[in-house]
C-alpha cells in the first residue's frame, strides 16, 4: 500500500510538472513549432526523470532531511520503486 504522504507529494509534483512543462509543450504543438516541441519534450523528460530520482533518493534519507526537502517520510520499503526493501 502506498503511503498517503508519498501519494500526496507525487500528485502535487505531477500537477506542477503538467502545469509548467506540459502546458508549454501543448502550446508549442498547437503552434506547430516542431523545433520548440522537440526541445520541450526533452525538457519534460528531464523534469520527470529528476522527480523520479528525487523520490528514489528520498527513500534513503533520514526523516529530518526529507522534511526539510518537503518530502514525506517513507514507510516500510522504497516508495519510489514500490519494492519492500533494497538489497
From TrEMBL:
This is Transposase. It comes from Rhizobium aethiopicum.
Amino acid at each position: 500500500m502506498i503511503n498517503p504522504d508519498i501519494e500526496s507529494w507525487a500528485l502535487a509534483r505531477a500537477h506542477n510538472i503538467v502545469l509548467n512543462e506540459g502546458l508549454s509543450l501543448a502550446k508549442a504543438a498547437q503552434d506547430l513549432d516542431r523545433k520548440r516541441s522537440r526541445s520541450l519534450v526533452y525538457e519534460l523528460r528531464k523534469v520527470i526523470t529528476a522527480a523520479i530520482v528525487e523520490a528514489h533518493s528520498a527513500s534513503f534519507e533520514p526523516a529530518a532531511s526529507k522534511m526539510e526537502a518537503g518530502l514525506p517520510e517513507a514507510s516500510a520499503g522504497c516508495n519510489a520503486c514500490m519494492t519492500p526493501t533494497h538489497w
